[in-house]
Design goal:
The chain is α/β, with parallel strands linked by helices. The model has no long low-confidence stretch (mean pLDDT about 95). The protein has 6 helices and 10 strands, in the order βββαβααβαββββαβα. It starts with a strand and ends with a helix. A 6-stranded mixed beta sheet has the order 4-1-5-9-6-10, with helices on both faces. It has a single domain, classed as Spore Coat Polysaccharide Biosynthesis Protein SpsA, Chain A (Alpha-Beta Complex).
Amino acid sequence: MNIAIIPARGGSKRIPRKNIKEFCGKPMIAWSIKAAQDSGCFEHIIVSTDDEEIAEIADFYGAEVPFMRPPELADDHTATRPVVNHAIREVEKLYGMPEYVCCLYSTAPFVRSTDLVASYEKVTNPGVEYVFSSCAFEYPIQRAFRIYASGFPEWFSPQYCHTRSQDLEPAYHDAAQFYWGTAHAFIENRESVSPNGRAYVLPSYLVQDIDTGDDWIRAELMFQTLNKLDRS
């Protein structure tokens, strides 16, 4: 059995009610639910929330909310892993222990069902415990510098200050869309960035953090443009 777990607490501060704020015609969370449904990968698509309105919207769009998240796992400082592990244990009580779990963020409207399928195929390979979305940094991180309070800059890695960017090793970051893993790897709190993890690399045009009003505007413009290209 495979399950998707979509964490969606009600107390978003930077963009209030972000999980259910309308994004290109639907509540934000609806896009993640749809991608999970379209992938065909899951017996159960579970939304973990502490908020009744989010639960109602998730149910309307076809996800399951068979339990509510406890308050101690819904504050500003709660990490994702305890939320996922709580959901796995609750699912185990209801349906039995799943084999594979996909933590799918509720604020990832660019997630594609085809990427969920392709990354699932990777996580089922022998010796693999995790596959997670990632993206290359757009500019070499070796050429980064700090700026002190006095105003002067200083290289983080001065040995690379005159190296051509094309000669520098690419670096990658978490794309914050999805994390496939075995249920036991999640429960045992194993690290995803490890020899048993695999990075599923997404193109940069499908990756956008949405933490501010400016982020939101940019993301909607990107999303609308991609939809036009898909229809052309």
